[in-house]
Structure formats: C-alpha cells, structure tokens
Design goal:
This protein is of the alpha/beta class. It has helices at residues 15-25, 71-78, 90-98, 109-115, 123-131, 151-162, 164-177, 181-193, 215-235, 245-253, 274-284; strands at residues 9-12, 30-39, 46-54, 59-62, 83-86, 106-108.
Length: 285
C-alpha cells in the first residue's frame, strides 16, 4: 500500500485525456471508485466535483468541473460487466442517478462489513486500522467546487480509492469463509434495481412541516420556500445562503416582519432590493 506522501495518481482535466482513460478503464474487470461532491453547501443543488477511479494499480482523478461532458465515463458505470467497488455508496448512487446514469454491478464494502456484523465506521478509520497511520483530515470539509484544487485535496481524494483493493480482498475472503457470498450478490442486485430518478433533492417546503403552521401560514410558507429555491438557483448559491429558513418561517407567521430586512446573515445582499420586497409582499398577500 502506498504511503500518503508517495501517492501515484493522474489528474485528468481535458476531454482528450478522459477519452484515453475511458478506453483504458473499459477493458478492466474491476474498478475502485469514489466521488467528491457538493450538496447545496457551497453552490446550489447537487454538484459532482471530482471522480476518483483506480484499477488497483493506477489512480485517476477526473475533474468534471473542467471537463463539461463526461457521458463516455458514465457508460463505464452503467457497464454490468465491470464491477465497481466503493465504500458507503449511497450518496454516490443518488448522484449518478441525478446525472441520468443507472450504475450496475456495484459492490459496496460498507454493506459487506454489515453482512459480517462489523461495526459502522468511516473509511478513514478503517484505513488507519489497516495501516497503523493517522490519515490527514484537513480536506474533509474543503470546497471541492473551487478551482484550482490544491495538491492536498488531490492527495486526500486519491487516498479514498488507494486502499479499497486491499480492503475488498480482506472482506471478500471473510464473506466467502462465512458462506455469505450469495447474500452479498443479492445486495449487489438490489443496488441495480434502485431508482432515485434525476430529482434527488427535496425542494421547497416539506409536507411533514405542514403540521407546524395554520392553513394560511402554510400557504405563505410554501410560496416563500418556492421563491427561496428559485432565487438560490439564479444566484447559484445554497438555499441557506439566500434566505435563512428560520426567518422564512417567522415571516410566514408574521407578515409584518417584511417592514424591516432581517440581519445580513439571514438574507443574501443581492436580494435586499425594492423589487424583492415587492415580490415578497405579493407572496404574503
């Protein structure tokens, strides 16, 4: 296994280079994959920021921010003849569905651990246990949307797939030893059949919140949350950075709050305008 400071990876940021990589990956039987993404934190919506793929020897860090068309890469994920090995693949699966890709033959090592009655822990914790080395965690919450990516970010991303082959070998040996191979195959088939569609993010007001409002308050709140969603998409900002949800709730209950703007942390400065106030007044009325 590679030392953190000696990781060997290829950073792919052009369509030409991606085409060559896809040709190489398409000939493999097993790939080890992970994603870095942003889900309404730094930008609006569900955004893919980096794709990490290893064939067990070579690691590729593919940049979908710089490469606008990754359709040829997505065919690798939907190819049932290539097994894709990952860890805790739930959000990654939703992301692929969001991109219109239905991945096949996914082996989730977190599921394999569950079948072996092993505790739920992070991949970082498992790698530290395997290597005896504390791994860098400074990039866990970094901004993966921003470019250029730093060398530390790229190393951190490469680590996510660097140790998957060794972990996979250990878990599969244990699965076979305990006679649970068919159970694991059932889990793989279950992932094949999942369908999250392309709209994986709840938008606007949630139905479960309805019980906290009167009927009139709910109508206001629902319309205000829809306005918040539209403005967030226009500004390409996460919704919480456009309008604070607590202020929206308070405004739905007490429309007189529109007479004064909320604190600057509760509203994006670009929305502090006469036109916005008129729009909010029309919603409240």
């Amino acid at each position: 296994m590679s030392d953190y400071n000696n990781l060997n990876y290829h950073y792919i940021e052009s369509e030409e280079s991606l085409g060559q990589v896809v040709n190489e990956l398409s000939s493999k039987q097993t790939l080890y994959v992970d994603f870095e993404f942003d889900k309404n934190h730094f930008l609006y919506g569900f955004n893919i920021c980096l794709i990490q793929i290893s064939d067990g020897k070579t690691t590729y860090l593919i940049d979908p921010v710089r490469i606008k068309n990754i359709d040829n890469l997505l065919t690798v994920f939907s190819n049932d003849e290539i097994q894709k090995v990952s860890f805790a693949f739930g959000e990654d699966l939703r992301l692929l569905h969001h991109l219109g890709c239905k991945p096949k033959n996914i082996l989730d090592l977190a599921t394999a651990r569950t079948l072996l009655n092993l505790p739920h822990v992070s991949l970082n914790s498992i790698i530290e246990e395997m290597t005896g080395k504390a791994l860098p965690k400074s990039q866990q919450k970094s901004n993966w949307c921003e470019r250029p990516l730093t060398e530390e970010q790229l190393k951190y991303a490469a680590l996510d797939v660097e140790f998957l082959p060794a972990l996979s070998d250990l878990l599969i040996q244990s699965i076979n030893k305990e006679g649970k191979k068919h159970w694991l195959q059932q889990e793989i088939e279950a992932i094949n059949s999942l369908d999250f569609g392309t709209n994986t993010d709840p938008k606007g007001a949630l139905e479960k919140e309805k019980k906290f409002f009167t009927k009139r308050e709910w109508l206001r709140y629902d319309a205000l949350m829809e306005f918040r969603e539209v403005e967030a998409e226009k500004l390409n900002k996460p919704t919480y950075k456009v309008l604070n949800k607590k202020w929206v709730e308070d405004l739905a209950r007490n429309p007189d709050l529109i007479n004064q703007w909320p604190p600057k942390t509760s509203i994006n400065p670009k929305l502090k305008s006469v036109s916005t106030k008129k729009m909010l007044l029309s919603i409240l009325e």
